[in-house]
Every structure is written in C-alpha cells, then in structure tokens.
Amino acid sequence: MKGDLFSSLHVVRPASAPGMTVENATCIRYVVDGEMHARQGSMIAYRGGLQFERKGQGVGGMLKRVVTGEGLPLMAVRGRGEAWFAQEAQNCFIVQVEPGDEFTVNGRNVLCFDSTLSYRISTVKGAGITGGGLFNSVFTGHGLLGLVCEGYPLVLPVSPQDPVYVDTDAIVGWTANLATSLHRSQSFGSMLRGGSGEAVQLMLQGEGYVIVRPSETTPQKPQQH
Are 173 and 148 spatial neighbours (Cβ–Cβ below 8 Å)? Predict the structure, then answer.
C-alpha cells in the first residue's frame, strides 16, 4: 500500500521502552508489563495479552462522585502488551510525579497513569459550595500521569509576589504548595447591571505552577455511567 496515510508520520514505530510515551499530539502509548490505570473507554487500540477490568472506587469514592460530580471512571489494564489511549482528539501531555510531590488536577483531564501513583478526591480549599462545588483529584507517589486538554494548555508560574487568578471552568491543575481561595473581581454595582461574566475566580498563591486550558466554556458531553 502506498500514499500519505502509510508514511512514517502515521505508521506506528516499535516501542523503544516500557511504560508511557506520547505517540502523537492526541494519543498516548503505554507498553504494559504488569498493571496500569486508564479512563474507562479511552483505549483505542491494543496488541498483546492485555485484560481490561473496571476499577472500583470503593464506597467512599462512589459517594464523593455522586455528591461532587468529580471522579475518575477508571479501568485497570493488566498483562503484557501495548495499548493506545485518547480522549476525543484532545491534546496529550505527560507529567512525572516524584516522591513527595502532590499534583492536583481536574478529573476530566486525566487520561491514564502508572499503578504506582495514588489519588484522592479533595475539596478545593477556600472554594467549597460557594465556588460551585470545586473538587479535584490529588495525585501522589512516583510515576507518570497522562493528561488531556482541549487545545494547548498555559503553564503559569506562581510566586508569593505574583498570585494567579484563574477562571474555575478553565483550570486544569496545579502543583503542591499553592494555597487556593475564591476572589471576586466584579463589583456589586456591576453585578446589578448584568455583570461581566467574570465574577469569581480561583486565586492561587505560593510557589509553583498552575495549568489552564485555552477555554472557559465547559463542554457539554454525555455523562459516562
């Protein structure tokens, strides 16, 4: 077969190492030798002796997902082989979590991760129900975390002298040692006149990085059950 479709740009090359790598801008490849975790329904192809099993979150995790809407519908991938993961052609990125690190990320942006990582669902401090119920997944341990993002994310440095204010619908995640609180940038008079559409933001203070996507519109997608 000939043609652009079969050029080196599209044909998958042999894996060079086990674990997670970016196959292209919108797909992650994982060479499995044991176990890894991925979002349910995100596998687009695989080869080898792999099994895919729904991963339970326990009673506590299920209750949090019902109450908060934040949760990770996960599957465990076990065996030996390689699999490719993607989510609606969103851009893919890999974050390396080191021992002692703590990375907070919106559950909608999680694609896959090493089984050596642990996560918990946590309330965003300073937001609570006032902020529309802001809950994120906090990853710890040692391993790789695959993320997806609509468009190319912005990674903004945060320093004690320069806090960053982020639209709550645009935030992807942030690193440890950042304190969060709600910030109102709109006056009461402006709200009475109809508002600017930018009434409340999440303020992050400290030393670290915050990641945002280039859109503040929450996509209306079918709920996954």
Answer: no
3-state secondary structure of 4: helix
Distance of CA 45 to the CA centre of its chain: 21
Q: Which residue has the tokens 């599957």?
A: 75
pLDDT in tens, 34-62: 999 999 999 999 999 999 998 765 444 44
8 A C-beta contact, residue 82 and residue 27: no
- For residue 95, pLDDT over 60 is answered with yes
DSSP secondary structure string, 147-159?
A: EEESSPPEEEEEB
Q: How many CB atoms neighbour CB 32 within 10 A?
A: 23
Q: 10 Å Cβ neighbour count for 46?
A: 18
Distance CA 25, CA 19 (A): 17
Strand order in the sheet with 178-184: 164-166, 200-206, 178-184
Give 84's strand partners.
29, 45
In percent, the amount of the chain with pLDDT more than 90 equals 55
- 58 DSSP 8-state letter: H
Beta strands in the chain (DSSP E): 19-24, 27-39, 43-55, 74-85, 91-97, 103-105, 110-114, 117-123, 135-141, 143-149, 154-158, 164-166, 171-174, 178-184, 200-206, 208-212
Side-chain half-sphere exposure of 168, counting CA atoms within 13 A: 23
pLDDT-based confidence at residue 63 (cuts at 50, 70, 90): very low
| Residues in a beta bridge with 162 | 159
Residues 6+ apart with CB under 8 A from 110: 39, 72, 137, 145, 146, 147, 148
